[in-house]
Design a protein that fits this description.
single chain; mainly alpha; two-stranded antiparallel ribbon; about 5% strand; globular; Ribosomal_mL60; 54S ribosomal protein L31, mitochondrial
Length: about 110
């Protein structure tokens, strides 16, 4: 009864933390394209900073990371998670993944 009345505020399964209906199971083509675009933009910023002659520790670390076209598909769209079954979690399940720096490399062995 309440599900049809509340519309977008439909309650979800409590064991899933109440967010089961908000996070899609997989990334759509559009979201994947946006992830790739965001990675390329970060690569461009790193290139511009390195060409300007600025030297700092974080820039050196950023230059050591693989570029978007060098990354494996698994590393672009998933991130390492200790608690996940296969130790991988979709990048869209990370809170604020568009604002946080997602690691481009994984621990050895994963």
């Amino acid at each position: 009864m309440f599900g049809s009345v509340l519309g977008a505020f439909t309650p979800s399964f409590a064991a899933l933390g109440g967010k089961a209906w908000r996070i899609p199971w997989r990334l759509s083509k559009t979201r994947k394209a946006n992830v790739r675009k965001r990675l390329r933009e970060v690569d461009d910023v790193i290139d511009v900073l390195s060409a300007s002659g600025i030297e700092c520790k974080q820039l050196v670390l950023a230059q050591a990371l693989p570029k978007e076209h060098e990354m494996d598909t698994r590393d672009k769209y998933t991130t390492f998670s200790r608690t996940a079954k296969n130790h991988r979690k979709g990048v869209h399940k990370v809170p604020h993944f568009t604002k946080r720096p997602i690691p481009r490399t994984t621990p050895t062995g994963f």
